Structures are given as structure tokens and as C-alpha cells.
Amino acid sequence: MSTHRPPTLAPAGQPSWRRRRLDPDHSLGLRLTLAATAAFLVLVPFALLTLLVLGAWAPLHRLDTAVTHALHGYALDHPAWVTLMRIWTEVFAPMPLRAVALVLVIWLLRRGARRLALWATTTMVVGGLIGPLLKLLVGRDRPELLDPVARAAGYSFPSGHASNATLAAGVLLLVFLPFARRGAARAALWAAALLITVLTGLSRVALGVHFASDVLGGWLLAVAVLAATTAAFTSWRAHTGLRPVRPTRDGVAPEVERHPGSA
Predict the structure, then answer these.
(1) Which of 96, 198, 208, 98 is nearest to 152 (CA)?
(2) Which fold has domain 30-262?
(3) What is the pTM assigned to this prediction?
């Protein structure tokens, strides 16, 4: 008569999956877990905002309407402001920013930084595809104004200008941080990235073609994509034996500045 031994969940002495994920000695698993958690935490407010938009939550609608009408009234009284916003929104539109990203990718490939070029491409492509898909799924109409100063086609949530500006600014920032060795240069890079991100989003609301929540949704979506692709890339490079990095301080591939072929 044969006896059946109960199956074991893990070999004796082998730490559980949960402990391996949180064990500092298993640095790759820990970084993956923390990075995935960070990306999830960014997606939570985006998902909540999306649900509020889909449900036409009255307080959000009132806030969006108040901001839109206030900025629209200012635009009607200040034609120079409208001209500035139109120029900015065209210069930092999705297509010009994608062209800049393409130039960056070509430059990285010429330096032999193939993995870094793949990360930049993946970040821009994934973010660029998710945004339009969500626009179709949410189907939110753009603001309707009696005397518009600008027009835009398509649905409204999330803002494509805001998300693509955030993606491009984030990619450029994380690629070029290793080249900025001094504090002033790093501060300038961060300031430029924030300026592009914030002012591009503001321009869409100022021109009356997006609600404020559309822009916020675009920012949150882009940050979530950046967090996810950066987590994957930094874990990948650590798995190949390269030293761990803090992307917001070191960039995603510090070795690109001295040894581009290893990035």
C-alpha cells in the first residue's frame, strides 16, 4: 500500500516568494517589487480620475467648467497670451516631440547604446498608443465655448499633448542626467523638463480645447508609463551585472556618458 506525501510549497531552506521579493539581499526582486508598486500607486489616482470622468461626477464637472471659463475669459481679453499659447502648443505638440525622440534614439544607436535606445522607443510608443485608445474608450467631448480662441478634433480625455510632453520630457531628462555632473546643470535639466510638462498642459486648458482634468489625466498616465518602463529597464540592466541606479538622480543609464556601448 503506497503512501502519498503532501506536496511542499517550497524546498526546505528556500525562502518564500514573498520574502524573496522583500529581501534586501535579493536586490533585483526588491527593486522590481518597489518599482511595480510605484507604478501601481501612480495608476490608482489615474484610474480614480477616469472613473470620475466616466461618471460625470458633478464636483469635478463644476471645477473643470470654472477653470475653463476663467482661462477663456482671460484669453479673450489678452490676444498676446493666446498667441503665446498657440505657439507653445504647436512647438510642443506630439508629432514634434516624437521627432525629437526619434533623433535621440538615432543618436543613442550611433553611440552603441542599443538598450537605452530601446527603452526610449518603448516608452514613447507605449505611451503614444495607450493615450488614443483611452480617448476612444472614455469618449469625453471637448469643452464647448461660445467664442473659442482655438479648436481641436477628437475626444478630450486624457490630453495627448500633456501625456506626450511628459513622456518626452521624462525620457530626455533620464537620458541626459548622467551628462549633468554639477548641481546647477541637474537643476536646469529638471526645470526644463517640468516647464515643458506643465506649460504644455496649461496651454491646452488656456486655449479652451481641454478640461483641467484632461491634462491631469495625461500627466498621470505618462508618469505611470515612465515608471513602468524605467523599472523594467533598470531591473534588466542590473540583471546584466551593471550597478544599481536611482533614475531620478543618476538617470537610467549612467554609463552612457563614459561607456555608451554598455548602456
Answers:
(1) 208
(2) Vanadium-containing Chloroperoxidase; domain 1 (1.20.144)
(3) 0.83
Give how far Cα 119 sits from Cα of 106, 110, 123, 227, Å.
13, 15, 6, 12
In contact, 75 and 145? CB cutoff 8 Å: no
- Which residues are within 8 A (CB) of 251 and not within 5 positions of it... i.e. 6 or more apart? 173, 174, 175, 176, 177, 178, 245
Q: Taking Cα atoms as reference points, which of 218, 197, 245 lies closest to residue 42?
A: 218
CA atoms within 13 Å, Cβ hemisphere of 213: 27
Per-residue pLDDT tens over the stretch 121-143: 999 999 999 999 999 999 999 99
Q: Three-state SS for 213? A: helix
- Over the stretch 58-98, which tens digit does the pLDDT of each residue have? 999 999 999 999 999 999 999 999 999 999 999 999 999 99
244 vs 128: CA distance, rounded Å: 28
What three-state secondary structure class fits 148? coil
CA–CA gap between residue 253 and residue 247 (Å, rounded):
8
Task: List phi, psi (to 5°) of 203.
Answer: -60, -35
Q: How far apart are CA 105 and CA 107, in angstroms?
A: 5
For 57, residues 6+ apart whose C-beta sits below 8 A from its C-beta are none
Ranges of each domain in the chain: 30-262
